[in-house]
Specification:
The chain has 183 residues and is an all-alpha fold. The protein is 79% helix and 0% strand.
């Protein structure tokens, strides 16, 4: 079972695994906080910070397709903060993300897993209803959990589960309050 990608042998591998898990912990903390944020603009800002930490963690662990996903996540999130992410942009980002992930993936099918939640996120990102975005994030966390466990990012794996739960709580809070968009 491949655990730490191309991180090398001995102490260097352990150092990168430790660094990846620490960065993953920081990113995962932001990811969990995003789950309880009701305001869409704040949610997107927290998600950008999350992507920086998680992309760095995945780089340390040799999960290069996940790094690509995080890069595209940052770009898309910034774009949608100030403008609508229309169908043409969704198609372009979906195609570019798919091509780049296929190009850098060296981990077989498990390396392709980040593509699925990213595609869900792309198509849910500009939803006026925050519940749709939170549902896409929650569903994606199940897929990310498998990926993160495989690559040895155990802190992030635990937080994938927590983020799933916090997004479900966020959905419940929005629905309970009778809000449609949370914005």
């Amino acid at each position: 079972m491949r655990r730490s990608g191309d991180c090398g042998k001995g102490n260097a591998s352990m150092d990168r695994m430790l660094a990846g898990n620490i960065l993953g912990l920081l990113g995962s903390t932001m990811m969990s906080l995003a789950g309880i944020v009701k305001d869409k603009k704040r949610l997107l800002l927290v998600m950008c910070v999350q992507y920086v930490f998680l992309g760095s963690a995945n780089f340390c662990l040799g999960a290069y397709a996940a790094v690509v996903t995080c890069f595209f996540g940052i770009a898309m999130t910034f774009l949608t903060m100030n403008q609508r992410f229309g169908t043409v942009m969704k198609i372009l980002f979906s195609a570019a993300n798919t091509v780049f992930i296929l190009a850098v993936n060296k981990a077989g099918l498990v390396g392709l897993l980040p593509l699925v939640p990213m595609l869900m996120f792309i198509w849910a990102l500009d939803a006026k209803n925050t519940v749709i975005l939170k549902a896409a994030v929650a569903a994606g966390m199940v897929i990310w959990a498998v990926h993160d466990f495989y690559f040895g990012n155990y802190t992030t794996f635990c937080f994938d589960i927590v983020t799933f739960v916090t997004n479900m709580i966020g959905i419940w809070r929005i629905r309970r309050g009778g809000e449609e968009s949370g914005a």
